[in-house]
Amino acid sequence: MKPTPIKRILIVLAVLLVLVLAMATLAQAGPITVVDDKGRTVTLAGAPQRIVSLLPSLTETVCALGACDRLVGVDRYSNWPASVKVLQGVGGGLDPNIEAIALLRPDVVLMATSSRAQVRLESLGLKVVALEPKTHADVQRVLGKVGQVLGVQDALQVWRVIDAGVQAAAQSVPAAAHGTRVYFEVSSGPFAAGQASFIGETLTRLGAGNIIPASLGPFPKINPEFVVRADPDLIMVGERSADGMAARPGWAQMRAIREGRLCRFDAAQSDVLIRPGPRMAEAARLMAACLSDKTQQKTVRP
C-alpha cells in the first residue's frame, strides 16, 4: 500500500529532523544555567550525561533532541521511544521513589512543576529542572529549555518540524469537516480537553470546533450533563474511557453516539494524543484522520 500524501510529508520531515539533530547536537563545555518553569535559576557544571526524567513528554523531548543515551531512569509512564522501556523505573512522576533516583546518581532530574518531589531531591544535593508544557507555545519553549540543559544547538529546529507536521495534517482535512463540533475526552471523570489546551489548539488548527470553552481551563473535570446539552457532532476518546460511555445518563441519545461518529483511540494512540511534545504532529494526523473519516460518514448518511 502506498503511503498517503500526509504520511509522505511526515516521513520527509522525520528524515530532515534526524539530519538536523545529527549536525546540531553538541555537548556544551562549561557551566549551563537555565531558568525553569518555577522561575528558579538552576546551574549545572556542564551538559548532563546522566539524566532522570519524571514526565513522559520530557522523556520524549530528550530523545527527540538526540540525547536518549543520556537517560538513566524514567517514570513508570515513559514508554516511547522503545529504548526507554529498558531503563530503570523510578515510580510515578508526581510522587517518585526518591531513593531509587538518588542511587542512579543523575546530573539532573527533569520533572513536572506539579511534582511533589523537588524539595526532597534537592535536599540530597541533586539538580532539578521543573518544566511542564501545556500549550503549543509551551512545547516550543520547553524544547528550547531542554536544549539548553542538554547543550544542543538550535533545539528549536525540532519545533519547526513539529509545526510543519501539524500544518500538513491541517491541510489534509476536507473543507466539509471545518466547523465540526468536537468533544475530546482525555480520561474518565470525565476530564476534557478544553480550547485552552494543546489538544484544543490542535483542533483549532485543524478547523474543528471544541464544545469545551477556554474559560473552563485546559483540562477541566466536567459535568456529564454539560456534554449532553452541547450535543457534539463528533467524540474523540481513548479506549480506556470509551467503555460504558453510552451508558452515562442521556449520552446514548446524543447524535455523535447514536450515529456512530465516535473515534476510539487505542492505548498507544492515546499516549501520542495526550503528550505535549515531539509527537504532536502525529497526534494532529490522528485527529485529522478522525475528522476526515467521520465527516465523510456524516456526508453519506441517508
From TrEMBL:
PROSITE patterns in UniProt: FE_B12_PBP
Ranges of residues in domain Fe/B12 periplasmic-binding: 50-299
Any GO BP: cellular response to iron ion
Pfam families recorded: Peripla_BP_2
InterPro entries: ABC_Transporter_SBP, ABC_transptr_periplasmic_BD, Vit_B12_bind_prot
Keywords associated with the record: Signal
Signal peptide: 1-29
Name of the protein in question: ABC transporter substrate-binding protein
Source species taxonomy: Bacteria, Pseudomonadati, Pseudomonadota, Betaproteobacteria, Burkholderiales
